[in-house]
């Protein structure tokens, strides 16, 4: 399967537990996101798949269906483990939202109008101010915190449309953010939409980032577990072994090889008999 934006960016996608996940390098991911954000029409939604989200996807068919309608980037060491097992090599880049989005805002030199939805009200305001200092050539709009009445979703999206956003960042946590985007965000709201999890908490300074060396090893999850054991112990202590079980079971079933072979035949033959 190929992902294309206009005629310039073409990225292969790797099967991870039945989900196509992009294997772009950093520079190609930036170029792709910038191109779709600056197009005069259309809309692209980017989600990030990590081990925890993959576990959710395996037991929630609705969430899986939503992700299949979005562009999925790999997030974290778990995706590399799965990629090595299924495809013999790790992903070329760890395109997690916490690093990717701030770097993308730096990369895009053309002034963008960026709408923000999610987290607590005070955190959203601090994140907005820090984003304005980080990339002052863009304009940032804190639209709503993440605790608004979901019955008011259309009103929230009306405000996004009114600010004429180019980029929309939604931080509600998975799978709520991806499902909410799929249901309520449509053409005219923004050309590029990203589900960003805890990004605003990091940008606001509410959560400390792991040291650079830990991030290079793709082990920020361990840093977060040490700092937030009560909230995250179940996700990592139970979740990581569960993810390994899912990928081993998927590999032993032969499904990864079968889907990869089908995809390669489609790419090579384009439907030829």
UniProtKB/TrEMBL annotation:
Presence of keyword Glycoprotein: no
Keyword hit for Transferase: yes
Pfam families given in the database record: Glyco_tran_WecG (PF03808)
InterPro entries to which the protein is assigned, alphabetical: WecG_TagA_CpsF (IPR004629)
Alphabetic keyword roster: Glycosyltransferase, Transferase
Annotated coiled-coil segments of the chain: none
Protein name, per record: WecB/TagA/CpsF family glycosyltransferase
